[in-house]
Amino acid sequence: MHRVIAIAFAGASLAGCSSVSWDMFKSTPPAVQVRLESNPPGAEAVTSLGPGCKTPCAVSVPASDVPFTVNYTLNQFLPASVPVNVIKTPGDFSTPASVTTDPNPAFVELQPAVPPKPVKKPHRPKKPKAPKAAAPASAGSPFPDPNSAPPAIAPPPEAPAPTR
Q1: CA-to-CA distance for 80 and 108, rounded, in angstroms?
Q2: Nearest to 37 by CA among 88, 137, 86, 109
Q3: Kind and range of the H or E run holding 86
Q4: What residues pair up with 37 in beta bridges, in sequence order?
Q5: Strands 31-39 and 44-47
Q6: How far is CA 103 from CA 36, 83, 88, 107, in A?
Q7: 8-state DSSP, 140
Q8: How far apart are CA 140 and CA 143, in angstroms?
Q9: 56-77 per-position pLDDT tens digit
């Protein structure tokens, strides 16, 4: 009877080993707390990794190997972005590994949105009115008018008749 119990126990143990996953030994990436602040406060801050909140606040993001950005938006202010780097410090026998972000807090100074200036119509000077009747150009000019008919050529004067 002891042999039957031992064989059943060994079979159950081996069956349990097949359901063990090696994934349980992998550690999940640690999460990092990032403070998000803005001036003025109350801006909507959203990270490129997903989490977001209304400033001032803190979000927990996965400690990725790549930098991420925080995008800030607030009515009547221009949107702004802040790049955030993830810094991983490996641990040794005396200190544990750590993950931090730079900058922390991620701070932005939002600039007011300037309303567009009204478009002014360009000022065009009024054209002077043309005179109704123009004086002939040849009256005061020593040059003949090119648009007028050429002057008539006068016949040469006749020689005086001889007197007898």
Answers
A1: 7
A2: 109
A3: strand 80-89
A4: 107
A5: unpaired
A6: 10, 8, 14, 8
A7: H
A8: 9
A9: 999 998 888 889 999 999 999 9
Q: How far is CA 34 from CA 12, 78, 90, in A?
A: 47, 23, 20
| 154 vs 42: which has the higher pLDDT | 42
Q: Which two tokens stand for residue 53?
A: 């909140």
Token output for 30: 């640690």
Q: Scanning the structure block, which residue is given the tokens 């991620």? A: 106
Phi/psi for 112 (5° steps) reads -65, 145
User: Token pair for residue 66?
Assistant: 């790549």
Q: For residues 56 and 43, is the Cβ–Cβ distance under 8 A?
A: no
Q: With beta carbons less than 8 A apart as the criterion, state whether 74 and 38 touch.
A: yes
**Structure confidence by residue, pLDDT tens digits, 109-127:** 999 988 767 777 777 777 7
Amino acid found at 21:
S
**Count of Cβ atoms closer than 10 Å to residue 110 Cβ:** 20
This prediction's pTM = 0.53
Only one residue has tokens 């090696």, namely: 22
